Amino acid sequence: MEEYFYLAIVVCFLLLLTAIHKKLIVLPFLALALFSGFRYDVGIDYDGYQRIFEWGREGLNGTKEPLFIYFLKFCNYLGGTGQLMFLILSFITIYFVYKFIDYTSKDRILSFLLFFSIISFYLYTFNAIRQWTACSIYLFSLSLLFENKIKKFLIINIIAALFFHLSLLLIIPLTLLCRIDLSRFKKNVMLIGAFVAGALLKILVGFTAYDAYNAEGLEFDSAVDIKIYIFLLMSIVVEFIRKKFKKTKYSEFLFNINFISILLLIIIIIQGSGPLVLLIKRFHNYFLAIYIIIIPFLLTNVEESKRKAVSGVLYIVLPLLFLTTVYFLGESNNLLPFQFNFKLFN
Q1: At what angle do helices 184-199 and 249-271 cross, to 10 degrees?
Q2: E strands along the chain, which residues?
Q3: Could you read off the pLDDT of 143-179 as tens digits, one per residue?
Q4: Closest CA to 53 of 83, 82, 80, 91
Q5: Do the Cβ atoms of 14 and 28 come closer than 8 Å?
Q6: Number of C-beta neighbours around residue 284 at 10 A
Q7: Residue 277 near residue 224 (C-beta atoms within 8 A)
């Protein structure tokens, strides 16, 4: 537990240095990359990834992603251990989250703390390793959409999907949908579609590569918990207040992302429990991560003095939330005990 406490102290100190120069915001991100990159036997999927790395040495691809084997071959070409794989994946993930926040956030410090402190983000990169690598690249690519560089957006995300997580391929069209003007009629049609999709999900999934999620009694079974209802309530509130914001390409895109999040949460709730809940949660994670910049954006509509007060409170509360999360949920998520491994090469 003390390792996480020291990390929080270091991160907060490095954030204070940004008052000297805004470019120093890169330092706390570097701390996160090193901390997660050198972790040993931490995270639910750690052992599974060690096996995937060993299979890669034998020329076998232990994932559905066709290009991930080439990443493993690159690590082996360098003479690396499995720890080198974790370090590289950690640096890729944190680097692209950094670029995403640096390019698109209205409050980079608050966005960093949201990423750092909420369990669905930084701590989740210890578990959903490849998906968060793909997610970080996806987040970075959103800046290309703001510049209407759709071709680059598509190329980057397709490559990321083929290397790290194929689920990203289904997120691409939903994201492009967020670029259009969603009228009330279109939203009503999409809401009806979400309820229909939720009711027919088992049938629809049967026609995809994710049909294994239809099997009963799988070890990755899941259920709807209180967090889903909290996320839904938060998303509905954001949808109701969107009229208070000036209509810009940036704001409309973020609000449309929020609406897509509502649709996915409805589908999750309709399922109730079972492996399909986990499947849709994985898709929802891509949109949930965008709240890292949505929340700071929402605060821009608050009077400056109140905004500074709210931000100041969050600057204090969020690191405490990080430590509280590790303390109460660390063992169940295999975040504790924490160990380091610095052996990168054979």
Answers
A1: 30
A2: none
A3: 999 899 999 999 999 999 999 999 999 999 999 999 9
A4: 82
A5: yes
A6: 21
A7: yes
Q: Are 134 and 165 in contact (CB under 8 A)?
A: yes
Buried b (16+ CB within 10 A) or exposed e, 243-279: eebeeeeebbbbbbbbbbbbbbbbbbebbeebbbbbb
CA atoms within 13 A on the CB side of 297: 23
- Nearest-5° Cα angle at 289, 330 to 171: 125
CA distance 109 to 143: 18
User: Would you give the end-to-end CA distance of the chain in angstroms?
Assistant: 29
Distance CA 31, CA 28 (A): 5
**How far apart are the C-alpha atoms of 41 and 126, rounded to whole Å?**
10
User: d(Cα 308, Cα 218) in Å, to the nearest integer?
Assistant: 47
The SS3 call for residue 269 is: helix
pLDDT, one tens digit per residue, over 221-262 is 677 888 899 999 999 999 999 989 999 999 999 999 999 999
Cα–Cα distance measured from residue 94 to residue 240, given in angstroms and rounded to the nearest whole number: 32
**273 phi and psi, to 5 degrees?**
-155, 170
Nearest to 228 by CA among 256, 262, 258, 202: 262
Report CA torsion sign: 273, 279, 283, 286: positive
pTM: 0.94
Beta bridge pairs of residue 340 = 39
